[in-house]
């Protein structure tokens, strides 16, 4: 996953750039985690402030933010469109490290969503059409029938991206890096987006 925009400025050292530090930690996790090092807990909220959380997969990271994809008609899709703020939490047990990210979200461009959708396995593309995500399912057979119906519909041809399926980019204004330390005196370093651009950083008590 790229961590710098095309033709963008050179990356700052990890000590100054949270994206570079995150990329280094994700690379470490890719080598050490047995499954899904890009897994994260996504927290959203209704306009009234009622929170919900679930696991999703990070599918893009660059200097603009963190990208994940979903059915826009799902619970998380509806909450993100009604209240466009979210929080992410990565936890890598093998490394004893965690990263928390907070900020507003925005839909990715159609071209970006199209490119990622086209890269998915054919079965996953069919699944995006067949699943009425987050809505009641009367039985497993209904889902399997929907998969069969869409498989027949598209045959061996192209499978276009459904209008109800796209991605969100969380544009961070706060990123916290946590490392396990002896006697629960953990290390916590926070980056805050500065009003004038760039980042301000501070350490927190554990």
Brief summary of the model shown:
It is built from 5 helices and 10 strands, in the order H-E-E-E-E-H-E-E-H-H-H-E-E-E-E.
Count of strand segments: 10
Instruction: Give the helix tally.
Output: 5
Poorly predicted runs are 2-12
Helical coverage, percent range: 25-40%
The first-level CATH class name of the domain at 18-117 and 163-204: Mainly Beta
**Secondary-structure content class:** alpha+beta
Q: Per DSSP, what share of the residues sits in E-state strands of 2 or more residues?
A: 25-35%
Largest sheet: 10 strands, antiparallel
Tell me what the structure shows:
The structure is a single chain. The chain is an alpha+beta fold and 206 residues long. The chain has a domain at 18-117 and 163-204: Electron Transport, Fmn-binding Protein, Chain A (Pnp Oxidase, Chain A), CATH 2.30.110.10. It has helices at 18-32, 75-82, 110-119, 122-130, 140-154; strands at 39-45, 51-57, 60-62, 65-71, 85-92, 97-107, 165-170, 174-179, 187-193, 199-204. Strands 1, 2, 3, 4, 5, 6, 7, 8, 9 and 10 form a ten-stranded antiparallel sheet that branches. Strand 1 (39-45) and strand 2 (51-57) form a beta hairpin. It is elongated. Mean pLDDT is 93; it is low at 2-12.
């Amino acid at each position: 996953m790229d961590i710098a925009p095309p033709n963008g400025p050179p990356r700052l050292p990890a000590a100054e750039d949270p994206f570079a530090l995150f990329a280094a930690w994700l690379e470490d996790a890719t080598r050490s985690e047995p499954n899904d090092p890009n897994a994260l807990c996504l927290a959203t909220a209704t306009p009234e402030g009622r929170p919900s959380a679930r696991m999703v997969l990070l599918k893009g990271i660059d200097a603009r933010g963190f990208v994940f994809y979903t059915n826009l008609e799902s619970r998380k899709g509806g909450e993100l469109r009604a209240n466009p703020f979210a929080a992410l939490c990565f936890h890598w047990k093998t490394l004893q490290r965690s990263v928390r990210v907070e900020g507003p979200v925005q839909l990715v461009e159609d071209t970006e969503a199209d490119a990622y959708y086209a890269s998915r396995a054919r079965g996953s593309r069919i699944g995006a059409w067949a699943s009425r995500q987050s809505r009641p399912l009367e039985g497993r057979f209904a889902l399997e029938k929907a998969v069969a119906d869409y498989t027949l519909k598209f045959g061996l041809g192209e499978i276009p991206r459904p209008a109800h399926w796209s991605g969100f980019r969380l544009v961070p204004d706060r990123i916290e890096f946590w490392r396990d330390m002896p006697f629960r005196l953990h290390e916590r370093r926070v980056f805050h987006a500065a009003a004038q651009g760039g980042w301000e950083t501070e350490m927190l008590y554990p």
